Structure formats: structure tokens, C-alpha cells
Description:
This protein is mainly α. The protein has 3 helices and no strands. The longest helix has 25 residues.
Amino acid sequence: MSAVDILLLIVSCLLITIIVLQDSKEDASQAFSGEKSELFANKKQRGIEVWINYITGGLSIAFFVLAILSAFFVDRL
């Protein structure tokens, strides 16, 4: 395992954790019934929600870059 693989593993675990911490904007019953809730459609994010979105975006970009780098470091047959 190279350093890029270890970083990819760490970033992927952090990305999973931060996504699980995000608050759902949809009700689970509405997801299965097909109806769309417009009640909080224009609600502005505040506080920790903004930081969680920034961290999620940063980790997603880091995951994408590390996955591409990892693909180049794979030993070819």
C-alpha cells in the first residue's frame, strides 16, 4: 500500500462520516411516496451546516484527485 492509497482510505472514511452527519432536508415518508416538500426550499443554511457543506465539498474534491492519482500509481501488467 502506497501513501496515496492510505490517504485515499482516510479521506473516504472522513467523507462517509461527514455525509452521515448532514441533516436530511427531506422526510423519509416523502421519499417513498413521491411528493416534494416546498416548505423549506428557500431556507438559508446557517452555522455548522455551512461548514459541513464546505468540508464535504473539499473532501469530495480530495477524494476525486486521490482516486485519479491512485489509478496512475497502479502497477500495470
